[in-house]
Amino acid sequence: QRRNPGEAEFHQSVHEVLDSLGPVVAKHPQYAEAAIIQRLCEPERQIIFRVPWVDDAGTVQINRGFRVEFNSALGPFKGGLRFHPSVYLGIVKFLGFEQIFKNALTGMPIGGGKGGSDFDPKGRSDAEVMRFCQSFMMELSRHIGEYTDVPAGDIGVGGREIGYLFGQYKRITNRYESGTLTGKGVAWGGSRVRTEATGYGTVFFVESMLATRGDDFDGKRVVVSGSGNVALYAIEKVHQLGGVVIACSDSSGHVVDEKGIDLELLKDIKEVQRGRIADYATARGDDVRLSATGSIWSVPCDVALPCATQNELNRADAAELARGGCRIVAEGANMPTTPDAVKLLAEAGVQFAPGKAANAGGVATSALEMQQNASRDSWSFEHTESRLAAIMGTIHDRCLATAEEYAAPGNYLVGANIAGFTQVADAMLALGLI
Ligand code: NDP
C-alpha cells in the first residue's frame, strides 16, 4: 500500500489473488526465491498521457489517458480500454492485474494489460467521440502493435470507438495492421461472436456449473445487472438456453419484467438509440417500472449475473440473494462482488464464479480475432461460437480440477487464482529475471 498509495481497487484485486496463493507458494518455494509475486504486482510499464480535444462548442477539453502494460510473459499485452469518468490509475491497474490471470486461463498466448481514460462518452456527439478517440490514439499508437500490446473495448468503448481508434491508428502508421486492436467490425477485420462473447461466455460457464449437479438453465430465474455489451448478450444466451431474465439495470436504476426482458426492445434502446433503462420501462408500459432506489439483488432469483461494474454487489446484497434462493453468482463484470460479499456467499452455500474465469470469453474471442487476422481468414458464427463454448468448458474444468488439487473442492475462486497464477509464474521462471 505504501508503494501504490490511494489505489484502492488495485489493492483489493491483489489481495483477492494473494489470499488464494498460500498453499502454492508453500508447495513451490522457487516462486518465492524468484520474487514472482513482487514482480507480478509491479507493471512492466505504465503510460499516462494528456488527451486534448475540442468539443462541439469549440471549447478545448483535456482528459487523461492511461495504458498499463502489466505482464507479457505469455504473449503481447492484451486487455481493453475503458472510457468512464471514474477511471484513474487504481482502476486501470486493478483491471490490468486481473487480466494477467484471466488471459492465462484462456490458454491463449496473451499477456495482461489495460487502459482507458476519464473521458465520459455519455451525452457526447459522434463527432466529439471521434475527435477524442483520434487524439487518444495519437499517443497510444506509439505503444501498441500486433506483437507488443493489443487493446480492445470495455466500459464506454464499443464498436464505434474501436472504429475511430483503428482508423486513426491506420492513418498514423500507414499500415492496415488488423491484429493491433480487437473488437473490430466484421467487415473490417473483426471476428464474428466478439460482440456476444463475454456475455455468452459467462452463461456457458454457468451452464457447466449447473451441469456438475445434473442441472441446466431450463426455467431458471436469472437477474443480470447492467444493460451494456456484457449484460445484453448474457441475457440473449440465457433466453436461448431456456432460462428467463427478469431484471436488468443501468446506473440510474433497475427494471423488473416478470414476463422476461424483451431483448429486441432493450437492444434497440441501448445499441441503436443509445437510450436509458428508463426508456425500456416507458416502452413496456404499466407492467414494468424503473426502480431508482433499492438493489437489483433483492429480486428473488436462481442465478445472479453481475455484468455492470466493480463493487456493485456488497455484503447486504449477497445476503438478499441468499435469502431469495439464489444458488449461483457468476461475474460477467470485473470484480463486481466485494470481498465480504464473496465470503458471505461461501458461508451461505451459494456457488461463486469469479470474473477472471467467468468473463474470460471476451478476451478469448479477441485472441481468436487475432488468429483470424494473422491468417487473413474469417470464420463462421457457428465455428467461432463452438470454439468459445469449448474454451469456457475448459476453463471451468481447469478451475475445478485445480481447486480439488489444492484441497478446496468446488471453490472456483481458489481454482481460478491458482491455475492462472501458476501458468504465468512458470513462464516468468523460464524467461529469467526480466
Ligand atoms: P458497457 O459500457 O457496454 O456497459 C456497462 C453497463 O454497466 C451499463 O449498463 C452501465 O450503465 C453500467 N455501469 C457502468 N458503470 C456503472 C456504475 N458506476 N454504476 C452502475 N452501473 C454502471 O460495458 P461492458 O458491458 O463492456 O462492461 C461491463 C463490465 O464487464 C465491466 O466490468 C467490464 O470490465 C467487464 N468486461 C467486459 C468485457 C467486454 O468484452 N466488453 C470483457 C470482460 C469483462 P450506464 O450506461 O448508466 O453507465
Automatic annotation (TrEMBL):
SUPFAM superfamilies: Aminoacid dehydrogenase-like, N-terminal domain, NAD(P)-binding Rossmann-fold domains
Reaction catalyzed: L-glutamate + NADP(+) + H2O = 2-oxoglutarate + NH4(+) + NADPH + H(+)
Sequence intervals crossing the membrane: none
Binding site for substrate: K78, Q99, K102, G153, S366
Sites marked Important for catalysis: D154
This protein's UniProt keywords: NAD, Nucleotide-binding, Oxidoreductase
CDD domains: NAD_bind_2_Glu_DH
Keyword Disulfide bond attributed: no
Example of a GO biological process term: glutamate biosynthetic process
Domain Glutamate/phenylalanine/leucine/valine/L-tryptophan dehydrogenase C-terminal: residue ranges: 191-432
UniProt GO MF annotations: glutamate dehydrogenase (NADP+) activity; nucleotide binding
Annotated Pfam families: ELFV_dehydrog, ELFV_dehydrog_N
A single cellular component GO annotation: cytosol
Alphabetized InterPro entries for the sequence: Aminoacid_DH-like_N_sf, Glu/Leu/Phe/Val/Trp_DH, Glu/Leu/Phe/Val/Trp_DH_C, Glu/Leu/Phe/Val/Trp_DH_dimer, Glu_DH, Glu_Leu_Phe_Val_DH, NAD(P)-bd_dom_sf, NAD_bind_Glu_DH
Active-site feature positions: K114
Residues holding NAD(+): T198, N229
Function: Catalyzes the reversible oxidative deamination of glutamate to alpha-ketoglutarate and ammonia.
Family: Belongs to the Glu/Leu/Phe/Val dehydrogenases family.
Subunit structure, interactors included: Homohexamer.
The name this protein goes by in its record: Glutamate dehydrogenase
UniProt organism field: Nostocoides japonicum T1-X7
